[in-house]
Specification:
By secondary structure, this protein is an alpha/beta fold. 47% of the residues lie in helices and 28% in strands. It has a single domain (9-188), classed as Trna Endonuclease, Chain: A, domain 1, CATH 3.40.1350. Strand 5 (166-171) and strand 6 (174-177) form a beta hairpin. It starts with 9 loop residues before the first helix and ends in an 11-residue tail after the last strand.
Amino acid sequence: MQTNQDAPTFEKVWLMFQETKEMFHETDKKFQDTDKKFQDTDKKLKKLEYLFTSQWGKLVESLVEGDLINLLNQRGIAVNLTTQRLKAYYDDRQFEFDIIAENGDEIVVIEVKTTLRPDDIKDFVEELQQFKQIFPKYKNNIIFGAVAYLTADSGSARMASRRGLFTIRATGNSATITNSKNFKPKEY
């Protein structure tokens, strides 16, 4: 049986509320500190991911570019010069083309992907169709397109070939054009 002495008083209840309120504040502060640590960790992971993917991309570009002149010459496009990461700002958009191979008359624009996906091809073809507007100095050149990759998803290489793009697979320490020998690239 509870006596009147054991019954909580207003002061005791108020004190318990104050203690609970203080515990909630401390818990909230710990959550904020934890959230800040997660945000800091997330930023560090994103920086590491960018560093990894950008370095990986540069490696694939180097594999492709290393043998590119020879590969294109074997396919009847007598290029003698390559350039990496041609950048431009056009129509309120920034463009970057990974590798350009040229000979003065013909230009092969190469998009390099670690994993080639159908959306990559769609996006690249749209950019390729604007290439002469983006770079007016090439308006009188014959433009060809190519996609280079380590792996290809969902029939992407076949899709690229049907769109008239050279398909270049980076292999080991070089690259190989995978289109059939009688493939005719589309002019853009």
